[in-house]
Amino acid sequence: MKIKKRQFSIKIFISMAFNIIVVTTGLLMCIFVFIYTRDVLRGNLYTRLNDLVYTISKNIDGDKFEKIVSKDDPVSVANYKSIQTKLQDIQKNTTKIFYIYSMKLNSSNQSVFAVPTDDDRGFMGWLNVPYLEFPQEAMKLYKENGIVVIESFIEDTYGTWVSGYASILNSKGKIVGVVGIDVSAEDVINSEIRCLVILILITLAIVLVVIFLGHYFSKMISNPLIQLQDEIAMIQKFELADVIPSETIFIEISDMENVVDRTKKALRSFKRYVPAELVHQIVITKKEAVLSGDKTEATFMFTDIQNFTTIAESMEIEKLFDKLGNYFELMTSNIHSNNGTVDKYIGDAIMAFWGAPNYIENHAGLACISALQCSDLLKTLNAELKNHNFPPLNTRFGIHTGHAIIGNMGYSERLNYTAIGDTVNLASRLEGINKFYDTNIIISNDTYNLVKNDFITRHLDKIIVKGKTNWIAIHELIGKKGETEKSILEFSEIYNSAVNLFYKREWKKAISAFEDALRIKPDDRQTKRMISHCRKYIQTPPSDRWEGIAKLNSK
């Protein structure tokens, strides 16, 4: 049994969610600001400690310090007094320094006291007394000149402290000891506590304000949604009157109202396409369907399976429809993924276009991408078909860009969204022309001019299609720039340079260039055809009016 999820009033939920989000955000901000403030305060303390211990280390005469060995030695006593006096003077005139002490290593590699500022054990009473709590981090200062600040607070009966250490050098730069200082951290801790208290009070004040605002805003959101709920209930009853807009200030709710209104218009439209009982299952569109059409620039693509009649006659109907279904699913999915519109299926052929019902800036490029991707996908599909002993579904593509009438055709009770015009017919013709040039994808010159910077093509011919008087240039679409094999790119460049020589009537040079292209792609039928033309024109030169135009007598 399916357990029903617990549900809440949107008004209460929004209010609670709003309060929780703001309170949580406030607490997180409070924590963030506190941590940041604490880090700044402690960072300043560590920086001051670093500067102090460095200055003190430079004020200690390393040569004198090195000669302090025993309180019985007059030189040691004199040096001790001199250094201690200087350290005491620094401690007296610098705020917040609790204790200054210097250390050295004994023969057992222990850190022992040398000269402190406080002789609470008698004069030179601390000399050579081991400092058992000397930090391990600071031991390196006996070997490497530097400064170490212990970034952890130490608490005792005298307060809270933080310590820093620096190497003591003699006049030759040799490390002879380490000086350490203890600095009070009480001010920093007090400042941190004050900051935390202030942040908590501010957060509590914000929470009280937000509770009131949350209740107010939840009503602003929930009331229009309740009205929208009533409109949706009307759709369920198939009452398709226009939506009465609310006075909401929220764009999203207004957009939802627009969606509901467009849904009602769509349902009214789809009633003219299909029986009313199926309307709820039809994909929602944005416009109410009426007999109409617009002259729109778009790119059209026709596809057709080579030798499909032969394939169909050699296969069982069930298997044919199954494989053809897989084929159409593969092709259609790719067309849709590239923002194309499938107009119709004509037997094994597909008619698709880009640029309507919504205009797309790069409609020609998307059509070319789709054709190339479909060709690659068909290679995989054909490999699978071969494994099951089915003939391959080799497909030809024709692509042309231009203006056509696109819209709802038919009559008031049965509409079909399609396109008509010479542009559509030419795209269909280009698909069929592939068989004359042994190519898979032919694009018109109009499409070529829009995509030539992004795709690799080669010029095929200048042709006059059957039933027309004006010639057009046609090109083979080879691949996308940056994604095509180097050899194919080289082939197209050599071939196109040879075509330029061909139209300049430089037949011998053209033959040489075409032969260079054949060395890369030996079985290319079109290149061999161009060589044949060149040789014919060498034997029988054309008239001065020759433009290299071929007139096709079949579709």
Question: What topology emerges from the helices and strands here?
Answer:
Elements: H1 10-59, H2 62-66, H3 74-93, E1 97-105, E2 111-116, E3 147-149, E4 154-156, E5 159-169, E6 175-184, H4 186-236, H5 251-270, E7 292-305, H6 308-313, H7 317-337, E8 341-346, E9 349-354, H8 363-387, E10 395-411, E11 414-420, H9 422-437, E12 441-444, H10 445-451, E13 455-464, E14 472-480, H11 486-503, H12 507-520, H13 525-539, E15 549-551
Which terms would index this structure?
alpha+beta; Alpha-Beta Plaits; six-stranded antiparallel beta sheet; Beta-Lactamase
Order of helices and strands: HHHEEEEEEHHEHHEEHEEHEHEEHHHE
Number of strands: 15
CATH names the topology of the largest domain as Beta-Lactamase
Radius of gyration: 44 Å
* Helical stretch tally: 13
| Tally of structural domains | 3
- Quaternary status of these chains? single chain
Structural class: alpha+beta
Distance between the termini: 63 Å
CATH H-level superfamily of the largest domain: PAS domain
Task: Give the overall form.
Answer: elongated
Please identify the top-level CATH class of the largest domain.
Alpha Beta
Strand content: 15-25%
Helix content: 40-55%
Give average pLDDT, whole number. Answer: 83
Low-confidence stretches: 272-286
CATH architecture of the largest domain: 2-Layer Sandwich
